[in-house]
Design brief:
single chain, 7-stranded mixed beta sheet, 42% helix
């Protein structure tokens, strides 16, 4: 009752003021209309969204995987960059991530660090200024592996060629030339005449990237298997269709065109 009485009292004073000064209300309305364009021109400042640093691929350094610790770091990066994108939820559960990092670390050590392994893993590192913006130490932003061997898939099996695999680029560094930089580094590092690769047919961005670099399809493997992270937190091996692509990186001009 007391609050209601106060409100009635205030309304009474406002009505009395408007009777004494009838021009006040139109003046307030006019001021509100004049202020409207300024509120649209100068919106209330909002905290800008965090943007990833613009980094040119020429500023990224590419180095070979060296130690056992590097293999674990590379496996963690590859899990977040590659396996997360294969999940229907576009994210991994802690259990999935832990399992995949463990598997990937073992694979990297076997394929790229074992004395008997013929493979090499190249890692792209962000420049110092980009790492500082992201709030991390010098970090891996991309990786790609290659190893010399025989290819028995596709329409043109080959012996003694390089096989490119495990290409991945971090989300903040995609579409900046890092993937192309890594693929060209493989072409420079390898001593083989040909580079082959396998890519899932459903991965259209990757197929488009390889074609832009000069790789051409030479067969399809319809019996390939791939690990898929499930939304319920499990991992499942599924049958996928894989395109076999290749590129000649050694030889004269005519050999590169016709063979």
């Amino acid at each position: 009752e007391i609050c209601l009485g106060l409100h009635i009292s205030r309304l009474g004073r406002i009505r009395a003021m408007l009777r004494r000064r009838p021009t006040v209300l139109p003046l307030l309305f006019l001021l509100a209309l004049l202020a409207l364009p300024f509120s649209q021109t100068f919106p209330i400042a909002q905290r800008p969204a965090r943007k990833s640093p613009r980094v040119s691929s020429s500023k990224v350094t590419v180095e070979r995987l060296k130690g056992q610790g590097d293999a674990k770091q590379a496996a963690g990066f590859f899990t977040d960059a590659f396996w997360s994108s294969k999940s229907a939820a576009k994210a991994l559960t802690p259990a999935q991530r832990s399992t995949l990092i463990r598997r990937q670390t073992s694979e990297f050590r076997t394929r790229y660090l074992s004395p008997s392994s013929p493979g090499t893993l190249l890692c792209a590192f962000a420049p110092v200024q980009a790492s500082e913006i992201l709030g991390v130490a010098e970090s891996i932003v991309g990786c790609v592996g290659f190893e010399s061997g025989d290819v028995d898939k596709g329409s043109r099996p080959m012996e003694g060629v390089s096989v490119l695999s495990n290409l991945a680029v971090g989300l903040d560094f995609r579409k900046r030339g890092v993937a192309k930089r890594l693929c060209r580094a493989v072409e420079t590092e390898t001593n083989d005449d040909w580079i082959y690769l396998y890519v899932e047919a459903s991965n259209r961005p990757a197929v488009k990237l390889y074609r832009s670099l000069g790789y051409r399809g030479c067969g399809v493997d319809k019996d390939a298997r791939s690990l898929v992270p499930l939304e319920d937190g499990g991992l499942e091996t599924r049958k996928v269709e894989v395109k076999v692509m290749r590129k000649r990186v050694r030889g004269n001009f005519l050999e590169k065109i016709f063979f």
